[in-house]
Amino acid sequence: MAADKVDPIHQFQITKLVPIHVGHVDLSFTNSSLFMAATVIVATLFLVFASSGRSLVPGRWQLVAEMSYSFVANTLRDAAGKAGMQFFPMVFSLFMFVLVANLLGMIPYFFTITSHIIVTFCLAMLVIGTVVVFGIWKHGFHFFGLFVPQGVPMALVPLVTMIEVISFLSRPISLSVRLFANMLAGHITLKVFAGFVVTLSAAGAVGVAGSILPLAMAVALTALEFLVAFLQAYVFTVLTCMYLNDAIHPGH
Amino acid sequence: MVDRPDGDHPRPSTGGDRAEGGEGAPETKPALAARLERLGASLEAHRSEVAAAKAKGRPSGFGQAIKIASEFVAGIVVGAALGWGIDRALGTSPWALIVFLLLGFAAGVLNVLRAEGKVADAGARLRAAGAEKSRSPSEPSDE
């Protein structure tokens, strides 16, 4: 029991809430699914509620919603130009999903869905899939010019092209690992320091006095984690915009 | 957080200016123009400051480490996976894995250099080369 409380990995465990089996496929509704649904509901409710007033002079909620909107719009326009704005719904949805998921994970006892690599990898595959499909649909074979650098000696072109292809294929992995590793490491660190407080304060008066240090650390880490939650949502969005830019303008 | 400094900056500045000019009579036109200019200058200074901070804005060391590591590892993982898959499909057991692992290593290094801005992004480089070519067709594209 006590060991279970201090176990920093325990918070990432998937538990089945409603077991559903279709044939041999396990489609159970887990705590992860629950918090994904919660993320979508919270993000939707927030935006609907915040924009329902539609006042010319925005209130607090409307201001936050408008800021997030223009923030993503500016990021996308900076990275991918005006043509990139056709992807705005997707990019904004991704940003809100990741941001709300990260922030929900900061609430004690809540599950952090972005700390599971399969979730972030699916998001990254959605982005890269869009890039590939849109790039080929829009530019046809010309899209593959992305992989053939110019000004390279003819003998080296096959080698360099292979390296470029692998580099392109590694994008979804690095994109997903970055988000996942940040959230995972942050939550583990937080839990470890919080666990120090519990174990130290069990060791009598000296322990209680000594536990002030890890407590201060845990408080500081909580603030840092909020920063990371925003920053990683932002990084994910920026990289999405950069990759979309490759699909829209794969070299002229 | 990083963005949108424009929203909150002008307010304290105008507040300061208003306090300055508030004691006198209604402002004359040159005074107003000077005030506007001052405001514009301070706004411009703030914007460039923010842009500079954004340009050099290094994330925390930990974030940086994860970024570089994930870029590097991703290249190797993809190379190894590709080689393994080709080996399985064609039955060329160790060879494709060996070759693609090395290629993946190169791709990982390329990813890292690209993430650090030491090598131009493929798309950006192509665009630059295309612009160069359209400007001076006889000139070979720069390296």
TrEMBL record, chain A:
<keyword id="KW-1003">Cell membrane</keyword>
<feature type="transmembrane region" description="Helical">
    <location>
        <begin position="87"/>
        <end position="111"/>
    </location>
</feature>
<comment type="function">
    <text>Key component of the proton channel; it plays a direct role in the translocation of protons across the membrane.</text>
</comment>
<keyword id="KW-0066">ATP synthesis</keyword>
<keyword id="KW-0813">Transport</keyword>
<dbReference type="GO" id="GO:0045259">
    <property type="term" value="C:proton-transporting ATP synthase complex"/>
</dbReference>
<dbReference type="InterPro" id="IPR000568">
    <property type="entry name" value="ATP_synth_F0_asu"/>
</dbReference>
<feature type="transmembrane region" description="Helical">
    <location>
        <begin position="34"/>
        <end position="53"/>
    </location>
</feature>
<keyword id="KW-0406">Ion transport</keyword>
<feature type="transmembrane region" description="Helical">
    <location>
        <begin position="118"/>
        <end position="137"/>
    </location>
</feature>
<dbReference type="InterPro" id="IPR023011">
    <property type="entry name" value="ATP_synth_F0_asu_AS"/>
</dbReference>
<keyword id="KW-1133">Transmembrane helix</keyword>
<protein>
    <recommendedName>
        <fullName>ATP synthase subunit a</fullName>
    </recommendedName>
</protein>
<dbReference type="GO" id="GO:0005886">
    <property type="term" value="C:plasma membrane"/>
</dbReference>
<keyword id="KW-0138">CF(0)</keyword>
<keyword id="KW-0812">Transmembrane</keyword>
<comment type="similarity">
    <text>Belongs to the ATPase A chain family.</text>
</comment>
<dbReference type="Pfam" id="PF00119">
    <property type="entry name" value="ATP-synt_A"/>
</dbReference>
<feature type="transmembrane region" description="Helical">
    <location>
        <begin position="143"/>
        <end position="169"/>
    </location>
</feature>
<keyword id="KW-0472">Membrane</keyword>
<keyword id="KW-0375">Hydrogen ion transport</keyword>
<dbReference type="InterPro" id="IPR035908">
    <property type="entry name" value="F0_ATP_A_sf"/>
</dbReference>
TrEMBL record, chain B:
<feature type="transmembrane region" description="Helical">
    <location>
        <begin position="92"/>
        <end position="113"/>
    </location>
</feature>
<feature type="region of interest" description="Disordered">
    <location>
        <begin position="1"/>
        <end position="29"/>
    </location>
</feature>
<keyword id="KW-1133">Transmembrane helix</keyword>
<protein>
    <submittedName>
        <fullName>ATP F0F1 synthase subunit I</fullName>
    </submittedName>
</protein>
<dbReference type="InterPro" id="IPR032820">
    <property type="entry name" value="ATPase_put"/>
</dbReference>
<feature type="transmembrane region" description="Helical">
    <location>
        <begin position="68"/>
        <end position="86"/>
    </location>
</feature>
<keyword id="KW-0812">Transmembrane</keyword>
<dbReference type="Pfam" id="PF09527">
    <property type="entry name" value="ATPase_gene1"/>
</dbReference>
<keyword id="KW-0472">Membrane</keyword>
<feature type="compositionally biased region" description="Basic and acidic residues">
    <location>
        <begin position="1"/>
        <end position="21"/>
    </location>
</feature>
